[in-house]
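Can't paste images in this forum, so I'm doing it all in text. The chain is below; anyone willing to post the predicted structure tokens underneath?
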Amino acid sequence: MMNIKKSVKILIASIGLTTIVSAPSFAGDPAKSLLAPNNHSLILIDHQPQMAFATQSHDIVQLRNNVAGLAKSAKAFNVPTILTTVAEKSFSGPLFSEIQAVFPNQKPIDRTTMNSWEDERITDKVKSFKRNKVVIAALWTEVCGVGAVLSALEDGYEVYFVTDASGGVSKEAHDMAVLRMIQAGATPVTWLQYMLELQRDWARTDTYVDVTDIAKEHGGGYGLGIIYASEMFNAKEGH
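Text version of the structure:
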């Protein structure tokens, strides 16, 4: 594996920066609205085959890629994560295998209610984490996403909704649901933005390798840029 410091140099060079910090530092305090590994929990709601079958707002292959990247990001930063399904045995099927693979020992909470916030098993878990921010991704956005987000907001949580790891039965249904959540006070994010917001400083070597590996596998053009920069560096160094 490439030396971490060399990898940091590659990435910083690839985005046009010329200086490298040796330890995490900020010119000032980061915004309190920013997500950090220790200030939030994540809820992944109803990422199941039958729910995906009717999802039309996003390409399903891309959506599954995005939610896998999101799950791996949470795991890399040790973010408390709740997995939940709806009517697994009778209708919707099991959790996406790529999510379950990230959390192999965690059994999803299977519900009957469309709004996961109405299930005490889920809200009790959220409360047990003692974190005031909640990040949510859901199928479908306009049902299971909206219900949980609006309910968490009214319970006093700061809520972030991962728009590209969620989807609705139409683009309009997804877009209007996201707009409704924003109007209620939720913050929209994307999965890659989420991961990089948690990393925030490339000198944080504990998660550097995990983050760049996730980006290479799931990050599209961004990941390809990291691979290209690494290859160019190796060629220059004669590796």
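Strands lie at 40-45, 81-86, 109-111, 133-138, 158-162, 187-189. The longest strand covers residues 40-45.
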